[in-house]
Specification:
The protein is α+β, with helices and mostly antiparallel strands. It has seven helices and six strands. Helix 1 packs parallel to helix 3 and helix 6 packs across helix 7.
Amino acid sequence: MNKFIILLLLITAFITSHAQKRDESTAMHKFMQANADSTIIVQYTGAWADSPVFYLLSKKGDTLTCYLYKDTRRYSSINKVPRKIAMAMSSRTMMDIYKTPVDINRFFNIKDIQPDSLLKFWDEVSALKPWLIKDDAIEGAGCPVGKKGEVYSIDDGGGILVHLVTKEQIKPLNFYDPDGFEKLCPGRKGRQSIIKFTALFRRYFKSL
């Protein structure tokens, strides 16, 4: 019975998370649009019920700031906890981020990066001209059909969803497993750009 309840919670979490991942109008996006000059929001989307994680690089005037939207809580105890109680506690805390609409809440926190590194980060990202990157909707998803009719596909890859947020608009860039498809059928400029683009985010959010 407990296994069924946990499975049901995971399915519900996946549906909720799946919807949030592709919603460019979350309260968090709108808040950043209203309160910053320019914000870049990166999210890696998985094939499973991954909890939502957002990486933000934002500029207001001459102030640069990074934010991380993620469940960073860690629970531990030196005391032994009975199995059923531990399972109930785990399922409760696991579901919190799924049940909470993406907004400026307890999951939204500053990511401390040294000011000189932040400036370099912004310059490197700007040099890739993110507003000119063409995503799968423009360049096409997957690989083109081969001369002999071969179709290359990846069924369990993750995606990259980027939102470019300004006062005027929120522009989405959506890619499905760009790293995987770049290996299968290399050459698309948009994929190559987003791979470099998100590599910068991974690097700086790990504090170099």
